[in-house]
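Reopening closed ticket. The problem is back. First fold of the pair:
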Amino acid sequence: MTSELPTEMETVPDRPLAIVPGESARYKLPSMHPEGRKFVGIAAAAVLVTGFIFHWEAVAWLLAGLTIWVAAFFRDPIRVTPVDPGLIISPADGLVSLITSVEPPRQLAGEGGLSAGPCTRISVFMNVFDVHVNRSPIAGTLTRIVYVPGKFLNADLDKASDDNERQYFIVESADGTRVAFTQIAGLVARRIMRFVEEGTRLAIGERVGLIRFGSRVDVYLPAGYVPAVIVGQRAVAGETVLARQGSAALLGGIAQ
């Protein structure tokens, strides 16, 4: 399924931003993704009906709060993405909940897929307050999309990678590096959306999909890449460096 991007995104530059010492950036309120407009409209209509027709003021105030939350849920902020070819960028906002070694799912194996044998998987868990627009972790061609129906278990559970409704992507860079990632539905999420099709050329950090309402994204690292994040760290889609090529993995961190 494709979806129109917000008109504000037309102002996004088509090339990397210059690094200019001494200049400061200005804050801009995030726009709302078009997918959220109908939900905000429904919630706002419910406020009007309960408040002005039935005069249920308490209910109307609760629904007004819900309307604000729905608008915030579908926010789609501009992100500034590092463009070094040796980087893999987080495709999702959220908590780095798991880093483990696994065999690639069969949907990602075979010709044109991931190499045989164990690889590192990094899981990023999105709660209902995170931005839910997902982005491409590298620049390249989207060579594979596989949708798998399934359950709606808590996405924070490891078995959600195999049991839940999910959608697999493989992006292949110009040098042949393949990075796979998976949109996984969760306990509350009931809709996985994608904005792109197989064969699409993607820029690093480009929007590829959205999950409603709270879920997880798994990223499968190719050989030669090591995690640049640790479990418990917060990731920002399109900005946080999730993995690096050829450098030593982090040993740990301090929660404080």
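Second fold of the pair, where the issue appears:
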Amino acid sequence: MIQTCDPIDDRMYVLGDSWYTNDKVISACDRRGFFYIGGLKMNAIVYPWEHRSSVKMLAHSLRPEDLHSVTVAGKRYDVFVYEGKVSKINNAQVILSWENGYHPNELPFVLVCTDVSLDPVTVLTYYGKRWEIETGYRYLKENQGFDQYQMRSLKAIRRFWVLQFLAYTYLEIQRDQHQFSTLGEVLHQERQAYLGRLMMYAYEQGLKRVPAKQMLHEFGLTA
């Protein structure tokens, strides 16, 4: 996806959770001239003050005076910023952040950013966009089966994506036309309407004395 993405800005940022924060993904971003911002696991290796350490060990070694406070979208964070080598990444910045203040017994939320020119507020703000992305993915997965495809070729996967987003666009149009608050309401309405049409069709076929065996076969309910 990174290799085939068409840039829409001079500075492109790829966002990912800690599962996708690895050398392969970040190298793909580097080859395209993109920057990466993503979650970082606690066992990632950093070198603060020229000492090798895991992120978890670093977090436990910090003192309150090592941190400074920032405000992002109305929320306060205590943050510590490290810049340097991160595991196999030659140079990046790592941001350890504690929401609502630092606490020595709580592990921070950790981000890595390959654009070392960004300040912590900007990095946290950019990463906050993932909430909207994740909400969209969750809707597509739970309500439209976005994660249920069983195919391997890129061509087939792209076709599946096209069908998914066509369905999504249709639901958005229906939501706008009928002034529903959410896509979930539209989806419920569409399912109810489909079930009603199905029942009316079965009723009409019954009036025509269509054999039950034929109806079951037509609905795919027989082997």
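Update: turned out to be a display glitch only; the data is intact. Residues 204 and 210 are 9 Å apart (CA to CA). The first strand starts at residue 13 and ends at 16. Please close again.
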